[in-house]
Amino acid sequence: MLPPARLAFAAALLLILQPPAPAVAARPIVAGKPAPSEAAATARWLAAQNTWGVLSTISSELSGAPFGNVVSYSDGVPGEGHGIPYFYLTTLDPTARDALEDERTSFTLSEFPLGTCGKIDPENPTCAKLTLTGELKMVDLQSSEADLAKSALFTKHPEMKDWPKNHHFQIFKLEIENIFLIDWFGGPKPIDPSEYLEYGRNQGPLRSS
Amino acid sequence: MLPPARLAFAAALLLILQPPAPAVAARPIVAGKPAPSEAAATARWLAAQNTWGVLSTISSELSGAPFGNVVSYSDGVPGEGHGIPYFYLTTLDPTARDALEDERTSFTLSEFPLGTCGKIDPENPTCAKLTLTGELKMVDLQSSEADLAKSALFTKHPEMKDWPKNHHFQIFKLEIENIFLIDWFGGPKPIDPSEYLEYGRNQGPLRSS
Predict the structure, then answer these.
(1) In angstroms, what separates the C-alpha of B120 from chain A's closest C-alpha?
(2) Does B154 touch chain A (CB under 8 A)?
(3) Residue B201 has what pLDDT?
(4) How distant is the Cα of B9 from the closest Cα of chain A, in angstroms?
């Protein structure tokens, strides 16, 4: 039984000593997990490394209750994430229907499925968690943004391009207004959406795996 | 001594007359993924096998937007899940604060992190996903339910018992009102919460994982 201070130390030691485990789907903007003090970098790393998360909407069918749904996403082709999550959704599913009625949405990611938390509990603050809150918008399929989003999605999720045409999948994106990141002790780290989106823009080519 | 036919009849009568097992009765869940046609079994399997998910609340800080947060949970000690997810939350975190203002909550789980989806995409309907919607309630720490919940949580998440006392972690549970399960093509499977909670209750000893 460890007191909190020792627990923190043990967690820190684990993070330092543990070699980066291979991610479930390794597509980092930087190869390893950024330091806890690098909040924007950590948030972007989580967005680039994960391939699925939970999209929460205000349910039109359940009288306004929050409704979380498992979805795949991509923020860019592997090694070139831009931070904006794109989704491929059909109105056969309640999430897209909800967003068309009320755009307020959050998208939640965990470091845990990447394998880099080791034996640290998923709820432990050193196992990073990210919630992006904003508005879920449909992307015009004729736009150049839609081409980029399709490329980002279909590269990370190859089977999507063969999903049934008559299900009328559409591209959606989350316009981020608020960022909630926990990656260490001491509460959530405030990150301005513009800081998050601009991270890495002027750093030259980023390493990709 | 009763003749065999009467003995069988008496046994059957006993089974019929037996009062419903308390919610805390051990109902181990089968080790492997149930068939797609077994909706309640699949939902209970997802709840028993996962150790973390996303809890979505109505955010009091973000003007009523849905807010999904990564949390650990347990529905029972390993091999004896009961289907009700218990959480260990602190009001230092927005999720618990939100629930105390507005109990409407959903809890979302994916089959993907269990590793049983193989190369199937996390959004593919055959990679099962479960959303339990209802009300998030604080459990009285003096109740016998709290003792069971603590045992369920601390067995699956051993570090929880050493989490800082001054963070005032409390036990919460989701009182389930609606179940959304996708585990195959053809849309969500309707499951009545009572069917979900009663699953396995009268099936005798089941294999545990």
Answers:
(1) 8
(2) no
(3) 83
(4) 45
Inter-chain touch A72–B121, beta carbons under 8 Å: yes
Contact (CB<8Å) A110/B62: no
Distance CA B57, CA A147 (A): 34
Q: What interface predicted TM-score (ipTM) does this complex get?
A: 0.85
Q: How far is Cα A44 from Cα A40, in angstroms, rounded to an integer?
A: 6
Q: Is the pLDDT confidence value at B35 over 60? A: yes
Stretch 58-117 of chain A: residues touching chain B, C-beta under 8 Å: 58-59, 62, 64-72, 88, 92, 94, 104-110, 112-113
Nearest CA in chain B to A58: B66
Interface test with A, best of B159, B167, B178, B179 (most A CBs within 10 A): B159
Question: Whole-model pTM?
Answer: 0.84
Which of residues A29 and A147 earns the better pLDDT score? Answer: A147
Top residue of B87, B89, B106 to mutate, by most chain A CBs within 10 Å, is B106
Q: Which helix (H) or strand (E) holds B148?
A: helix B144-156
| pLDDT per position as a tens digit, A120-175 | 999 999 999 999 999 999 999 999 999 999 999 999 999 999 999 999 999 999 99
B160 contact residues in A (CB cutoff 8 A): 121, 123
Task: Please tell me the distance from the alpha carbon of residue A183 to that of residue B163, in angstroms, as a whole number.
Answer: 16
B194-198 long-range CB contacts below 8 Å, 24 or more apart? B195/B40, B196/B40, B196/B43, B196/B44, B196/B83, B197/B23, B197/B82, B197/B83, B197/B84, B198/B20
* Residue of A89, A95, A106, A111 for testing the chain B interface, max B β-carbons within 10 Å: A106
B30 burial via Cβ count (<10 Å: 0-12, 13-18, 19+)? middle
Q: Which two three-digit tokens encode residue A71?
A: 């979805």
Give, in degrees to the nearest 5, the angle at Cα A24 between A136 and B117.
Answer: 80
- From the list B92, B87, B83, the residue with the least C-alpha distance to B41 is B83
Token pair of A82, please? 């831009």
Q: Which option is the CATH number for B39-198: 3.20.20.70, 2.30.40.10, 2.30.110.10, 3.40.50.920?
A: 2.30.110.10
Q: What mean pLDDT is reported for chain B?
A: 87
